[in-house]
Design brief:
D-isomer_DH_CS, 322 residues, single chain, Rossmann fold, phosphoglycerate dehydrogenase activity, D-3-phosphoglycerate dehydrogenase, amino-acid biosynthesis, seven-stranded parallel sheet, 2 domains
């Protein structure tokens, strides 16, 4: 008997378009439509009317939303999955397809590492206010005297895939690289300086660069106690997740001039940030820079990662249909 091909249907949310190569792969397993989803009810309805739901970071898929869903696959071309209730996915027999654990592939995806350096330079050279200063018709360079990164000590917390790439960039810029990681990194012991605790790392450095995965063990791992061991002139840059740092403790340090500044691409509770204390602080102060989780948002990285997860989806669907 001839095998009957099962064609699925995909709803794509928060993604405006996909590349031709990605479309060619997707069409082999699924029809698809782009859909604007603005409410929780619309999200629930979408998950009840598709086999595959494809999005990035624009929704939080909670237990309530996933319960009794008819969706079979969730596709998300990111590494951090704290916006998806993975336990509920398991309970509802939903397979999550992402970039988590795809270390070899991700070595070629460097957008977030580059953005980390950009955020730090924006902070240390005071360019946030310098832009608007000139746009308002002014030209007073004395207001924007900055600091160099050369020969400064940078501490990387989390020397995983992204941390290693960022360490290379800092090293090329002439910075002294220190790191703390729960896993021993023998390859880097001679090139960079390993430190055996978070507190010991904080006491050494001028810049803290955060590159941790977010999970239950790293939730608020940077807290009031260890953050208070940072030097008074320290700068902090975070392109990890907002949940790895106690933002209220960080804000207290900023308000009391115990650290010099914070640059971040992530906030705890994003995207609902209109009343976020750090956003309110940033509106009135030059020493906090916040971008809306755009670290991986480049044309190159999006095209590469989307094609990768759809190829991964195709393989899994084909295995399920055998």
């Amino acid at each position: 008997m001839e095998k009957r091909e099962i064609i699925m249907h995909t709803i794509i949310s928060g993604i405006e378009s996909i590349s031709q190569n990605t479309e060619n792969v997707l069409r082999k397993v699924s029809t698809y439509q782009f859909k604007t989803i603005e409410t929780k009810q619309q999200l629930i309805e979408a998950l009840h009317s598709c086999d595959i739901f494809w999005f990035r970071l624009n929704h939080k898929l909670t237990k309530e939303i996933l319960e009794n869903s008819k969706c079979k696959f969730i596709v998300c071309a990111v590494t951090g999955l704290d916006h998806i209730d993975l336990e509920s996915c398991k309970e509802n027999n939903i397979t999550v397809i992402s970039l988590k654990g795809e270390f070899e592939f991700l070595k070629e995806v460097r957008a977030t590492a580059e953005h980390t350096i950009g955020l730090l330079l924006t902070l240390i050279r005071k360019t946030k206010n310098a832009y608007s200063h000139v746009e308002n018709g002014n030209w007073d360079r004395t207001q924007f005297q900055g600091t160099e990164l050369y020969k400064k000590k940078v501490g990387i917390i989390g020397l995983g895939r992204l941390g290693k790439i960022v360490a290379e960039y800092y090293n090329v810029m002439g910075m002294h690289v220190f790191y703390y990681d729960i896993n021993k990194q023998e390859k880097y012991e001679n090139k960079y300086t390993a430190v055996n605790s978070i507190e010991a790392l904080f006491k050494e450095i001028d810049v803290l660069s955060i590159h941790l995965p977010y999970n239950t063990s790293t939730h608020f791992i940077l807290n009031e106690k260890n953050l208070n061991t940072l030097k008074k002139n320290a700068l902090v840059v975070n392109t990890s997740r907002g949940g790895v740092i106690d933002e209220q403790a960080l804000l207290n340090l900023l308000n009391t001039d115990k650290i010099a500044g914070y640059a971040t691409d992530v906030l705890y509770g994003e995207p609902d940030i209109i009343n976020h204390p750090l956003v309110k602080y940033a509106k009135k102060n030059n020493n906090v820079v916040i971008t809306p989780h755009i670290g991986g948002n480049t044309f190159e990285s999006i095209e590469k990662t989307e094609l990768f997860v759809i190829q991964k989806l195709k393989k899994i669907v084909e295995q399920c249909q055998k």
